[in-house]
Amino acid sequence: MAKRPNLAMIPAGYKSRVLYSAIPEEEVGDFAFERTGVGTRVNSDGLIVSMASQLPRLNYDLTNNVASRCPHFLLEPARTNLIHYSNNFAGTGWGNTDATLTANTTSSPDGTLNASTLKATSAGGFNNYNATGASSTSHTVSIYIKRKTGTGQVQLYGPENAYQDITVTSDWTRFDFTATSTTTAIRIGVKLAVSGDEVFLFGAQAEAGLYATTYIPTDGGTATRAIETAINSGSAATFNSESGILFAEIAALTRSAETSYLGLSDGTNNNVVLLGYTATLNRITAFCGGADDVSINYASTDKRELHKCAVSYQNNKVKFWVNGSQVGSTQTTFEIFAVNTLNTLRFDYGDGSNDFFGKCKDLRVYDTDGMSDTEIDNLLTEITI
Protein backbone atom coordinates (compact mmCIF):
# COMPACT_ATOMS: atom_id res chain seq x y z
CA MET A 1 0.00 0.00 0.00
CA ALA A 2 1.37 3.40 -1.02
CA LYS A 3 2.49 5.68 1.78
CA ARG A 4 0.22 8.67 2.35
CA PRO A 5 1.96 12.06 2.14
CA ASN A 6 1.58 14.61 4.91
CA LEU A 7 0.85 17.23 2.26
CA ALA A 8 -0.16 16.92 -1.39
CA MET A 9 -0.97 19.64 -3.91
CA ILE A 10 -2.27 18.20 -7.18
CA PRO A 11 -3.67 21.19 -9.10
CA ALA A 12 -7.47 21.03 -9.10
CA GLY A 13 -9.12 23.59 -6.83
CA TYR A 14 -8.70 27.28 -6.16
CA LYS A 15 -10.43 30.49 -5.23
CA SER A 16 -9.33 34.11 -5.07
CA ARG A 17 -5.88 34.24 -3.41
CA VAL A 18 -5.93 30.51 -2.54
CA LEU A 19 -4.57 27.36 -4.20
CA TYR A 20 -6.03 24.30 -2.49
CA SER A 21 -4.03 21.27 -1.42
CA ALA A 22 -5.71 17.85 -1.48
CA ILE A 23 -3.93 16.74 1.72
CA PRO A 24 -4.44 17.75 4.46
CA GLU A 25 -8.11 18.58 4.15
CA GLU A 26 -7.73 21.45 6.62
CA GLU A 27 -6.92 24.95 5.36
CA VAL A 28 -3.42 24.74 6.84
CA GLY A 29 -2.26 22.95 3.67
CA ASP A 30 -3.52 25.59 1.24
CA PHE A 31 -1.21 28.10 -0.46
CA ALA A 32 -1.63 31.87 -0.26
CA PHE A 33 -1.59 33.01 -3.88
CA GLU A 34 -0.92 36.49 -5.23
CA ARG A 35 -1.14 38.05 -8.70
CA THR A 36 -2.42 41.57 -9.22
CA GLY A 37 -4.18 41.88 -12.57
CA VAL A 38 -5.44 39.53 -15.27
CA GLY A 39 -3.52 36.54 -16.60
CA THR A 40 -4.32 34.06 -19.37
CA ARG A 41 -4.17 30.29 -19.46
CA VAL A 42 -5.11 27.39 -21.75
CA ASN A 43 -8.22 25.63 -20.46
CA SER A 44 -9.25 21.97 -20.74
CA ASP A 45 -10.79 22.68 -24.17
CA GLY A 46 -7.44 23.92 -25.45
CA LEU A 47 -8.58 27.57 -25.62
CA ILE A 48 -6.87 30.69 -24.27
CA VAL A 49 -9.00 32.25 -21.53
CA SER A 50 -8.50 35.13 -19.09
CA MET A 51 -8.21 34.64 -15.35
CA ALA A 52 -9.24 37.51 -13.10
CA SER A 53 -6.85 39.16 -10.68
CA GLN A 54 -5.80 36.92 -7.74
CA LEU A 55 -7.03 33.68 -9.36
CA PRO A 56 -4.38 30.92 -9.70
CA ARG A 57 -3.88 29.57 -13.20
CA LEU A 58 -4.31 25.84 -13.82
CA ASN A 59 -2.91 25.55 -17.32
CA TYR A 60 -3.19 22.70 -19.84
CA ASP A 61 -0.32 21.90 -22.19
CA LEU A 62 -1.19 21.43 -25.86
CA THR A 63 0.10 18.56 -27.99
CA ASN A 64 -1.00 18.79 -31.63
CA ASN A 65 -3.52 21.39 -30.42
CA VAL A 66 -5.10 18.87 -28.02
CA ALA A 67 -5.14 19.75 -24.32
CA SER A 68 -3.44 17.44 -21.83
CA ARG A 69 -5.63 15.37 -19.50
CA CYS A 70 -4.41 17.07 -16.33
CA PRO A 71 -3.39 20.68 -15.68
CA HIS A 72 -0.33 22.11 -14.03
CA PHE A 73 -0.09 25.09 -11.69
CA LEU A 74 1.59 27.88 -13.64
CA LEU A 75 3.70 30.65 -12.09
CA GLU A 76 5.33 33.37 -14.20
CA PRO A 77 7.38 36.51 -13.59
CA ALA A 78 5.99 39.98 -14.21
CA ARG A 79 5.99 40.83 -17.90
CA THR A 80 4.66 43.71 -20.03
CA ASN A 81 3.35 43.40 -23.57
CA LEU A 82 4.86 46.44 -25.30
CA ILE A 83 2.53 46.19 -28.31
CA HIS A 84 -0.41 48.57 -27.94
CA TYR A 85 -2.76 46.55 -30.16
CA SER A 86 -1.91 42.90 -29.69
CA ASN A 87 -4.68 41.54 -31.90
CA ASN A 88 -5.65 44.51 -34.06
CA PHE A 89 -3.09 44.23 -36.82
CA ALA A 90 -4.51 47.36 -38.48
CA GLY A 91 -4.27 49.36 -35.24
CA THR A 92 -1.96 52.31 -34.63
CA GLY A 93 1.65 51.25 -35.01
CA TRP A 94 0.99 48.33 -37.34
CA GLY A 95 1.86 48.66 -41.03
CA ASN A 96 1.65 46.60 -44.23
CA THR A 97 4.08 46.59 -47.12
CA ASP A 98 3.08 44.73 -50.30
CA ALA A 99 0.37 43.01 -48.29
CA THR A 100 -3.27 43.34 -47.25
CA LEU A 101 -4.77 42.71 -43.84
CA THR A 102 -8.34 41.55 -43.25
CA ALA A 103 -9.69 41.30 -39.70
CA ASN A 104 -11.99 38.66 -38.15
CA THR A 105 -11.64 35.98 -40.82
CA THR A 106 -11.35 32.80 -38.72
CA SER A 107 -11.50 31.51 -35.16
CA SER A 108 -8.39 32.17 -33.10
CA PRO A 109 -6.76 30.18 -30.26
CA ASP A 110 -9.26 31.79 -27.86
CA GLY A 111 -12.16 30.25 -29.81
CA THR A 112 -13.68 33.47 -31.15
CA LEU A 113 -13.83 34.94 -34.67
CA ASN A 114 -11.06 37.46 -34.18
CA ALA A 115 -8.02 36.24 -36.13
CA SER A 116 -6.81 38.26 -39.13
CA THR A 117 -5.65 37.26 -42.62
CA LEU A 118 -2.36 38.58 -43.98
CA LYS A 119 -2.03 38.24 -47.77
CA ALA A 120 1.11 39.05 -49.76
CA THR A 121 0.32 41.14 -52.86
CA SER A 122 3.96 40.94 -53.97
CA ALA A 123 6.87 38.70 -53.10
CA GLY A 124 8.15 39.59 -49.64
CA GLY A 125 4.94 41.22 -48.44
CA PHE A 126 4.85 41.79 -44.68
CA ASN A 127 3.02 43.22 -41.68
CA ASN A 128 5.04 44.70 -38.83
CA TYR A 129 5.02 46.80 -35.64
CA ASN A 130 7.73 48.76 -33.83
CA ALA A 131 7.26 48.72 -30.07
CA THR A 132 9.24 50.86 -27.64
CA GLY A 133 11.47 49.01 -25.21
CA ALA A 134 14.87 49.43 -23.58
CA SER A 135 18.16 49.39 -25.46
CA SER A 136 20.87 46.83 -24.66
CA THR A 137 18.15 44.53 -23.34
CA SER A 138 17.00 41.09 -24.45
CA HIS A 139 13.47 41.12 -25.83
CA THR A 140 11.27 38.27 -27.01
CA VAL A 141 8.55 38.68 -29.61
CA SER A 142 5.85 36.08 -30.21
CA ILE A 143 2.76 35.58 -32.36
CA TYR A 144 0.28 32.84 -33.26
CA ILE A 145 0.28 31.95 -36.98
CA LYS A 146 -1.69 29.46 -39.09
CA ARG A 147 -1.43 28.74 -42.82
CA LYS A 148 -4.42 29.69 -45.00
CA THR A 149 -3.10 29.29 -48.57
CA GLY A 150 0.19 28.75 -50.34
CA THR A 151 3.38 26.91 -49.52
CA GLY A 152 5.98 29.70 -49.60
CA GLN A 153 8.49 30.51 -46.88
CA VAL A 154 7.31 32.55 -43.90
CA GLN A 155 9.65 34.61 -41.74
CA LEU A 156 9.26 36.06 -38.25
CA TYR A 157 11.02 39.37 -37.66
CA GLY A 158 12.25 40.42 -34.23
CA PRO A 159 14.41 43.04 -32.52
CA GLU A 160 17.31 44.50 -34.54
CA ASN A 161 15.48 43.50 -37.76
CA ALA A 162 16.74 39.98 -37.15
CA TYR A 163 14.55 37.25 -38.59
CA GLN A 164 14.12 33.51 -38.70
CA ASP A 165 12.46 31.13 -41.12
CA ILE A 166 9.47 29.39 -39.59
CA THR A 167 7.39 26.41 -40.68
CA VAL A 168 3.73 27.41 -40.71
CA THR A 169 1.09 24.67 -40.98
CA SER A 170 -2.70 24.49 -40.98
CA ASP A 171 -2.62 24.30 -37.16
CA TRP A 172 -2.25 27.30 -34.87
CA THR A 173 1.35 27.56 -33.62
CA ARG A 174 2.94 30.21 -31.42
CA PHE A 175 6.31 31.29 -32.78
CA ASP A 176 8.82 33.35 -30.80
CA PHE A 177 12.14 35.07 -31.39
CA THR A 178 14.63 36.50 -28.88
CA ALA A 179 17.35 39.08 -29.56
CA THR A 180 19.21 41.83 -27.74
CA SER A 181 18.22 45.31 -28.86
CA THR A 182 20.76 48.10 -29.36
CA THR A 183 18.02 50.71 -29.68
CA THR A 184 14.63 51.27 -28.07
CA ALA A 185 12.78 50.14 -31.22
CA ILE A 186 11.55 46.56 -30.76
CA ARG A 187 10.27 45.16 -34.04
CA ILE A 188 7.90 42.29 -34.68
CA GLY A 189 6.78 41.30 -38.17
CA VAL A 190 5.58 38.47 -40.40
CA LYS A 191 6.90 38.27 -43.97
CA LEU A 192 5.57 36.09 -46.80
CA ALA A 193 8.06 35.17 -49.52
CA VAL A 194 5.52 34.31 -52.23
CA SER A 195 2.95 36.68 -53.68
CA GLY A 196 -0.60 35.47 -53.07
CA ASP A 197 0.24 33.40 -50.00
CA GLU A 198 -2.01 33.95 -46.97
CA VAL A 199 -1.63 33.28 -43.25
CA PHE A 200 -3.85 33.88 -40.23
CA LEU A 201 -2.48 35.98 -37.35
CA PHE A 202 -3.41 36.24 -33.68
CA GLY A 203 -2.01 37.54 -30.40
CA ALA A 204 1.24 39.44 -30.97
CA GLN A 205 3.50 40.10 -27.99
CA ALA A 206 6.81 41.89 -27.38
CA GLU A 207 8.31 41.64 -23.89
CA ALA A 208 11.63 42.26 -22.18
CA GLY A 209 13.09 38.87 -21.29
CA LEU A 210 14.85 35.81 -22.65
CA TYR A 211 11.72 33.75 -23.30
CA ALA A 212 8.06 34.17 -24.21
CA THR A 213 5.46 34.07 -21.45
CA THR A 214 1.72 33.53 -21.75
CA TYR A 215 -0.26 35.90 -23.93
CA ILE A 216 -1.01 39.35 -22.49
CA PRO A 217 -3.85 41.00 -24.50
CA THR A 218 -3.68 44.74 -25.17
CA ASP A 219 -6.03 47.25 -26.80
CA GLY A 220 -4.74 50.80 -26.96
CA GLY A 221 -1.70 50.64 -24.67
CA THR A 222 0.80 48.34 -23.00
CA ALA A 223 -0.42 45.84 -20.40
CA THR A 224 1.39 44.09 -17.54
CA ARG A 225 0.81 40.74 -15.90
CA ALA A 226 2.17 41.00 -12.35
CA ILE A 227 4.49 38.49 -10.70
CA GLU A 228 2.81 35.39 -9.24
CA THR A 229 3.65 33.93 -5.83
CA ALA A 230 2.35 31.01 -3.76
CA ILE A 231 3.50 30.65 -0.16
CA ASN A 232 2.71 29.55 3.41
CA SER A 233 1.37 26.02 3.00
CA GLY A 234 1.57 23.78 6.06
CA SER A 235 2.97 24.30 9.55
CA ALA A 236 5.56 22.76 11.86
CA ALA A 237 2.98 20.08 12.70
CA THR A 238 2.62 19.18 9.00
CA PHE A 239 6.28 18.41 8.33
CA ASN A 240 8.92 16.22 9.95
CA SER A 241 12.04 18.37 10.13
CA GLU A 242 14.27 15.39 10.96
CA SER A 243 13.36 12.85 8.29
CA GLY A 244 11.32 13.36 5.13
CA ILE A 245 10.96 13.57 1.36
CA LEU A 246 10.09 16.58 -0.77
CA PHE A 247 8.66 15.54 -4.16
CA ALA A 248 7.68 17.71 -7.12
CA GLU A 249 6.79 17.10 -10.76
CA ILE A 250 7.98 20.34 -12.33
CA ALA A 251 9.11 22.02 -15.54
CA ALA A 252 11.04 25.26 -16.04
CA LEU A 253 10.01 28.06 -18.39
CA THR A 254 13.51 28.39 -19.85
CA ARG A 255 16.53 26.15 -20.31
CA SER A 256 18.76 28.71 -18.55
CA ALA A 257 18.61 32.33 -17.38
CA GLU A 258 16.72 31.94 -14.08
CA THR A 259 17.40 30.65 -10.58
CA SER A 260 14.09 29.37 -9.29
CA TYR A 261 13.14 27.17 -6.31
CA LEU A 262 10.31 25.67 -4.31
CA GLY A 263 10.47 23.84 -1.01
CA LEU A 264 10.35 23.61 2.75
CA SER A 265 11.79 26.23 5.08
CA ASP A 266 11.44 28.04 8.36
CA GLY A 267 10.40 31.20 6.51
CA THR A 268 14.03 32.21 5.97
CA ASN A 269 16.81 30.89 3.75
CA ASN A 270 18.73 29.59 6.77
CA ASN A 271 16.98 26.21 6.97
CA VAL A 272 15.65 24.85 3.68
CA VAL A 273 14.93 21.72 1.65
CA LEU A 274 14.57 22.80 -1.97
CA LEU A 275 14.04 21.60 -5.51
CA GLY A 276 14.49 23.85 -8.50
CA TYR A 277 16.74 25.35 -11.11
CA THR A 278 19.91 27.36 -11.35
CA ALA A 279 20.79 29.63 -14.28
CA THR A 280 23.10 26.89 -15.61
CA LEU A 281 21.81 25.41 -18.86
CA ASN A 282 19.31 22.60 -18.15
CA ARG A 283 20.45 22.07 -14.56
CA ILE A 284 17.95 20.76 -11.98
CA THR A 285 19.06 21.06 -8.36
CA ALA A 286 18.24 19.61 -4.94
CA PHE A 287 19.51 21.76 -2.08
CA CYS A 288 19.41 21.29 1.68
CA GLY A 289 20.69 24.16 3.78
CA GLY A 290 21.11 24.50 7.53
CA ALA A 291 24.18 23.97 9.67
CA ASP A 292 25.58 22.32 6.52
CA ASP A 293 24.80 23.01 2.87
CA VAL A 294 24.27 20.12 0.46
CA SER A 295 23.68 20.61 -3.25
CA ILE A 296 23.15 17.82 -5.79
CA ASN A 297 22.76 18.66 -9.48
CA TYR A 298 21.19 16.84 -12.41
CA ALA A 299 21.98 17.70 -16.04
CA SER A 300 18.71 17.24 -17.90
CA THR A 301 18.27 17.21 -21.65
CA ASP A 302 15.71 20.00 -21.40
CA LYS A 303 14.45 21.25 -18.04
CA ARG A 304 11.39 22.74 -19.79
CA GLU A 305 10.07 19.18 -19.89
CA LEU A 306 8.29 17.81 -16.83
CA HIS A 307 10.60 15.93 -14.45
CA LYS A 308 9.63 13.97 -11.34
CA CYS A 309 12.11 15.05 -8.68
CA ALA A 310 12.51 14.09 -5.02
CA VAL A 311 15.01 14.88 -2.29
CA SER A 312 15.15 12.84 0.91
CA TYR A 313 16.72 14.29 4.04
CA GLN A 314 17.91 12.68 7.29
CA ASN A 315 20.81 13.29 9.60
CA ASN A 316 23.98 12.81 7.52
CA LYS A 317 22.02 11.41 4.58
CA VAL A 318 20.65 13.41 1.62
CA LYS A 319 19.58 11.78 -1.66
CA PHE A 320 18.28 13.21 -4.94
CA TRP A 321 16.13 11.18 -7.35
CA VAL A 322 14.88 12.14 -10.82
CA ASN A 323 12.54 10.11 -13.01
CA GLY A 324 12.99 6.85 -11.12
CA SER A 325 16.75 6.88 -10.50
CA GLN A 326 19.13 8.29 -7.93
CA VAL A 327 21.17 11.26 -9.16
CA GLY A 328 24.73 11.62 -7.88
CA SER A 329 25.89 10.04 -4.67
CA THR A 330 24.33 10.05 -1.22
CA GLN A 331 25.60 13.03 0.75
CA THR A 332 26.70 11.90 4.20
CA THR A 333 27.64 15.22 5.80
CA PHE A 334 24.47 17.02 6.78
CA GLU A 335 23.43 18.00 10.28
CA ILE A 336 19.67 17.59 10.37
CA PHE A 337 17.34 20.36 11.48
CA ALA A 338 16.03 20.65 15.00
CA VAL A 339 12.51 19.44 15.73
CA ASN A 340 9.78 21.74 14.33
CA THR A 341 12.25 23.84 12.32
CA LEU A 342 10.57 23.39 8.92
CA ASN A 343 7.17 25.06 9.12
CA THR A 344 6.20 26.22 5.63
CA LEU A 345 6.10 25.06 2.00
CA ARG A 346 6.60 27.84 -0.52
CA PHE A 347 7.23 28.43 -4.21
CA ASP A 348 10.47 30.32 -3.53
CA TYR A 349 13.86 30.01 -1.80
CA GLY A 350 12.25 30.08 1.62
CA ASP A 351 12.47 33.80 2.21
CA GLY A 352 10.69 35.36 -0.76
CA SER A 353 13.72 35.38 -3.07
CA ASN A 354 14.31 33.27 -6.20
CA ASP A 355 10.57 32.74 -6.75
CA PHE A 356 9.62 29.57 -8.59
CA PHE A 357 8.64 30.33 -12.18
CA GLY A 358 7.47 27.27 -14.03
CA LYS A 359 4.94 24.46 -14.05
CA CYS A 360 4.07 22.24 -11.11
CA LYS A 361 1.89 19.21 -11.79
CA ASP A 362 2.31 17.47 -8.44
CA LEU A 363 3.82 18.50 -5.09
CA ARG A 364 4.08 16.30 -1.98
CA VAL A 365 5.87 16.05 1.35
CA TYR A 366 6.37 12.71 3.14
CA ASP A 367 7.35 11.84 6.70
CA THR A 368 9.94 9.04 6.60
CA ASP A 369 10.44 8.62 10.34
CA GLY A 370 10.88 4.93 11.22
CA MET A 371 11.46 3.85 7.60
CA SER A 372 14.54 1.83 6.65
CA ASP A 373 16.92 2.95 3.91
CA THR A 374 15.44 0.32 1.63
CA GLU A 375 11.90 1.50 2.31
CA ILE A 376 12.88 5.10 1.63
CA ASP A 377 14.62 4.12 -1.62
CA ASN A 378 11.57 2.14 -2.69
CA LEU A 379 9.32 5.13 -2.00
CA LEU A 380 11.66 7.44 -3.92
CA THR A 381 11.53 5.07 -6.88
CA GLU A 382 7.76 4.71 -6.68
CA ILE A 383 6.96 8.41 -6.66
CA THR A 384 9.51 9.48 -9.28
CA ILE A 385 9.13 6.74 -11.87
How is this structure best described in words?
The protein is mainly β and 385 residues long. It folds into two domains: 7-76 and 231-384, Sandwich (Jelly Rolls), CATH 2.60.120.200; 81-225, Jelly Rolls. 3% of the residues lie in helices and 48% in strands. Strand 27 and strand 28 (293-299) form a beta hairpin.
| Sheet with most strands | 8 strands, antiparallel
- Radius of gyration (CA) equals 23 Å
How many structural domains? 2
Structural class: mainly beta
Integer average pLDDT = 97
Distance between the termini: 16 Å
Q: Helicity, in percent?
A: under 10%
CATH topology call of the largest domain = Jelly Rolls
CATH domain class of the largest domain = Mainly Beta
**Anisotropy-based shape:** elongated
CATH architecture of the largest domain: Sandwich
Percent strand equals over 45%
Question: Would you identify the regions where 5 or more consecutive residues have pLDDT less than 50?
Answer: none
Q: Could you state the oligomeric state of the chains shown? A: single chain
Which key phrases capture this entry?
single chain; 385 residues; Jelly Rolls; 2 domains; five-stranded antiparallel β-sheet
Brief digest:
The chain has one helix at 373-384, and strands at 7-9, 14-15, 18-19, 31-34, 39-42, 48-51, 57-59, 62-63, 66-67, 72-75, 79-81, 94-97, 99-107, 113-120, 125-132, 137-149, 154-157, 163-166, 173-181, 185-192, 198-208, 223-225, 229-231, 244-252, 260-265, 272-277, 283-289, 293-299, 307-314, 317-322, 325-331, 344-346, 358-367. With 385 residues, it is mainly β.
